[in-house]
Amino acid sequence: MGPVVEIADLERLARRRVPKMFFDYADSGAWTESTYRANSEDFGKIKLRQRVAVDMTNRSLETTMIGQTVAMPVALAPVGLTGMQHADGEILAAKAAAAFGVPFTLSTMSICSLEAVAEATKKPFWFQLYVMRDRDFINALIDRAKAAGCSALVLTLDLQILGQRHKDLRNGLSAPPKFTPKHIWQMATRPGWCLNMLGTKNRTFGNIVGHAKGVGDLSSLSAWTNEQFDPRLSWNDIDWIKERWGGPLILKGILDAEDAKMAAKTGADAIIVSNHGGRQLDGAPSSIAALPEIVEAVGDKIEVHLDGGIRSGQDVLKALCLGAKGTYIGRAFIFGLGAMGQAGVKQALDIIAKELDMTMALCGERTVSALSRDNLYRYGQL
Ligand SMILES: Cc1cc2nc3c(=O)[nH]c(=O)nc-3n(C[C@H](O)[C@H](O)[C@H](O)COP(=O)(O)O)c2cc1C
Ligand SMILES: O=C(O)C(=O)c1ccccc1
């Protein structure tokens, strides 16, 4: 295989290095995966307006997300089980993000704990919260995020029940891994991953082990999730979470203009337009298709961010042109991590930054804040 020049190269390498059950877990969407596919396909339908003879010197990708300076408007999205793609995956991804100057978001369902990531990186990161039925546990988790120095709380609203992903059911996915002959085979054919994993103690859910009951004994991820996660979560809960946390708050998983208006009323600092990477409601529109009407509804009241389907810097630029102030990548960095650990996450960020910078230049712009619908051919109508 030749040099790594685009995110698809990292994906191919990750597929060869990560046991099938964990690679498939990342590379899956709910049911028919139509929304998962639409997320990236819809970016491809948007055309750019080429401009020429514009001074290209002194370009910069630096901007802010929720008032925090970022080297480019691309954060790492929260991804559960990141530490199963590569040993100590959350720590490595957090280090790569900190070195690059973009936010890393640690999932509630991470393998490395809040405390382990804080200790290893000594840099602030963002924490993503899932609301579970056990409110004492959630309060304790919020307090732990504060103690770990997290600089934003990302509250995910689109997963009260876990969407059904066929690949996970067929693979009998669980973390820690099960040891049926099939699972042993999948791991034995990935010796690099196995050796690497034997070198760490971080092999189960670091934030919740010993706290939330039953976590050592996962019959299936979905059964466990549906038992623990709170199906009663409502807009009324944002208040107590916001108050307990007391810092910058981002609401994740908004895909509808009416929900965006509700979110803006909570006084949160930002929303993330997201369909959970196509992993929850199959048949929902792509995030990029949903973005314009949400920006139209609340763009002057709350910062609007977007994730879902971003595989290049061009995708980032299109989201910015349609009104997003920031974006997040999930699989794009996960493939880098699975392929080659921290260096792979760095490569993913380098690739996206280069693509964003070159695209911006060829569109005749020098700063991300200058980007608008005017940079899109026919204003980006799909
Ligand atoms: C393997 C995987 C695990 C995820 N786990 C979480 C999670 O724990 N919490 C969360 O809020 N979102 C989670 N997400 C959703 C991501 O934060 C993000 O919305 C999505 O990955 C964006 O799409 P992309 O992967 O196409 O960039 C997960 C996504 C993937 C692919
Ligand atoms: O897989 C996911 O998308 C996710 O967010 C999750 C939810 C519960 C347990 C593990 C991962």
Task: Outline the secondary-structure elements.
Blueprint: H1 7-17, H2 20-26, H3 34-45, E1 63-65, E2 68-70, E3 74-76, H4 89-100, E4 105-106, H5 114-121, E5 126-129, H6 135-147, E6 152-156, H7 166-171, H8 181-188, H9 191-198, H10 221-228, H11 237-245, E7 249-254, H12 257-265, E8 270-273, H13 287-298, E9 303-307, H14 313-321, E10 326-329, H15 331-362
Parallel strand pairs: 3-10, 4-5, 5-6, 6-7, 7-8, 8-9, 9-10
Antiparallel strand pairs: 1-2
Residues 80, 109, 159, 162, 221, 225, 276, 279 line the site of benzoyl-formic acid.
GO biological process, one term: aerobic respiration
Active site: 276
InterPro entries: Aldolase_TIM, Alpha-hydoxy_acid_DH_FMN, FMN-dep_DH, FMN_HAD, FMN_hydac_DH_AS
Describe this structure in words.
Pfam families: FMN_dh. GO terms for molecular function: FMN binding; L-lactate dehydrogenase (NAD+) activity. It comes from Microbaculum marinisediminis. This protein is an alpha/beta fold and 382 residues long. It has one domain (7-46, 60-360): TIM Barrel. It has 15 helices and ten strands. The model has no long low-confidence stretch (mean pLDDT 95). The structure holds flavin mononucleotide and benzoyl-formic acid. Flavin mononucleotide (FMN) binds at residues 25-26, 39, 77-80, 107, 109, 128, 156, 252, 274, 276-277, 279, 307-310, 329-332. The site of flavin mononucleotide (FMN) has 24 residues, from helix 2 and helix 15.
